[in-house]
Amino acid sequence: MAFLPEGRLLVTQKSGTLVIVGANGQSISAPLGGVPAVDARDQGGLLDVAIDPQFATNRRVYLAYSELVGGENGTAVARGTLNATGTALENVEVIFRQLPKKANATGHYGSRLVFRPDGTLFVTLGERQSFAGEAQLLTSQLGKVVRIRPDGTIPPDNPFVSQGGNAAAVWTYGNRNVQAAALHPTTGELWISEHGPQGGDEVNIALAGRNFGWPAVSYGCNYGAPIGTACRIGGGTHEPGYVEPAVYWYPTSTAPGGMLFYNASRFPEWQGSLFVGGLAGRTLWRFVLNGNSVVGQEPFFAGQHEIRDLKQGPDGWIYMISRNAGQILRVER
């Protein structure tokens, strides 16, 4: 979901529809026209939505989705202009396609969209489930975070731009399946959370050029291993060259699904906190930070909601999508 300037919400639905929810939560529009066709199998579909930082003047909307082309699929990003009546996207164009596309793969698309203060766009990309080894290859965009300009061109200061090809867009690598991302409100740095295998979900600070180790090392275990710590992939502790996570879950997964830094006044005692939602974990986690270090944590709604997305509303409350309830919820006092 993404808030429009006047408080309404753009909301994606997995099957491929984009709707607008009224600011009072009481109305849902008809599906908007102009949305690209999506490959809505398994984990695929219409995924993230973001509005341009200059939306007030250009009315541009960005969509991440799973795209099928010639029997192969992958994450794609398109942008279009929301028309004056709010009923359709116009002048829609695809600005990014994850490469290489894969056949017979319908999972781990990643797909979060986050604009940087300089106007460039981060796109998180999963390793497509059956192709874990490509997360370590800069010749592939699987298991990466990429950074592009709003028109899809490559910023010249990307860390691997000199290598050209698929590497030019890469910002970080060694990621598994990044399904949540947010900018730190003070430092402007990108923080991401990604799904581990069996345990080993991570929150990472995604600085340029960092390698987060997947699939060589993880605090999680391979699926089917006995629950515990003895089975950690690569021994768990990250070797030199791989970056340690800021937070990780073990021995079971929470499956992080949404993320925000809180900086509004409704909850002054929470200012500066990092919130991460859990899908499988059905919990809203609040992490207390001291700089870039996590010094405390607090769970909310344990066992209740599979949290797909989190946003701080323009009214200062916290909004979350509950996948199992099929609802957008507002967290108030």
User: Could you tell me the number of beta strands?
Assistant: 23
Q: Helix share of residues? A: under 10%
Contiguous low-pLDDT stretches (5 residues minimum) are: none
Task: Please give the CATH class.
Answer: Mainly Beta
Radius of gyration: 19 Å
Give the count of structural domains.
Answer: 1
**Major sheet description:** 5 strands, antiparallel
| Mean pLDDT score | 96
Structural class: mainly beta
CATH topology name: Neuraminidase
Overall geometry: globular
Describe this structure in words.
This protein is an all-beta fold and 333 residues long. The protein has one domain: TolB, C-terminal domain (Neuraminidase), CATH 2.120.10.30. It contains one helix and 23 strands. Strands 4, 5, 6, 7 and 8 form a five-stranded antiparallel beta sheet that branches. The chain has a four-stranded antiparallel beta sheet with strand order 9-10-11-12, with no helix packed on it. A four-stranded antiparallel beta sheet has the order 13-14-15-16, with no helix packed on it. It is globular, with a radius of gyration of 19 Å. The two termini are 22 Å apart.
